[in-house]
Amino acid sequence: MYLPAIEGISSAITMLLLELARNEATAQRAQQELRNVELLEVQTANDITDEKLQRLHYVRGIVREVLRLAPPIDGGFREACQTIELHVSSDLPLIFS
Fold first, then answer.
1. Is the pLDDT reported for residue 61 higher than 80?
2. pLDDT band at 4 (very low <50, low <70, confident <90, very high)
3. pTM above 0.90, yes or no
4. Cα separation of 7 and 4, whole Å?
5. 3-state SS class at 72
6. Which of 80, 81, 73 is nearest to 11 (CA)?
7. What angle (nearest 5°) sits at the alpha carbon of residue 52, between those of residues 48 and 2?
8. What secondary structure does DSSP assign to 7-61, as a single string?
9. What whole-number distance in Å separates Cα of residue 29 and Cα of residue 61?
10. Residues 6+ apart with CB under 8 A from 29
11. Share above pLDDT 90 across residues of the chain, in percent, rounded to a whole number
């Protein structure tokens, strides 16, 4: 199962939407770029071409900046709710890294 990949992607998308909500001017400029490249109102997946995606310079910059500011790899939004004590056999080595 690809749960770590899904969690990383969902965390990145959440942070991207949060930053766009915080900065209306950036969101409007990104929306204008999507409109100019004709990706704002796509009808089918065939309407999204590699050529169109390559023209999204501003949107790509936003995504890179969000990933730089809030990388999804470090664990995202998880927080321990309670401490759990592990009882391990004395002959079993336990390694944390």
1. yes
2. low
3. no
4. 5
5. helix
6. 73
7. 55
8. HHHHHHHHHHHHHHHH-HHHHHHHHHHHHHTT-TT--SGGG--HHHHHT-HHHHH
9. 12
10. 58
11. 42
The helix or strand, by DSSP H or E, that contains position 65, with its residue range, turns out to be helix 57-69
Q: Lowest-confidence range among 29-43, 59-73, 80-94?
A: 80-94
Phi, psi of 46 (to 5 degrees): -65, -20
Give tens-digit pLDDT for 18-31.
999 999 999 999 99
Q: What is the mean pLDDT of the chain?
A: 81
Q: What tokens were used for 39?
A: 């990706």
The one-letter code for the residue type at 75 is: G
* Widest CA span in the chain: 65
d(CA 25, CA 89): 58
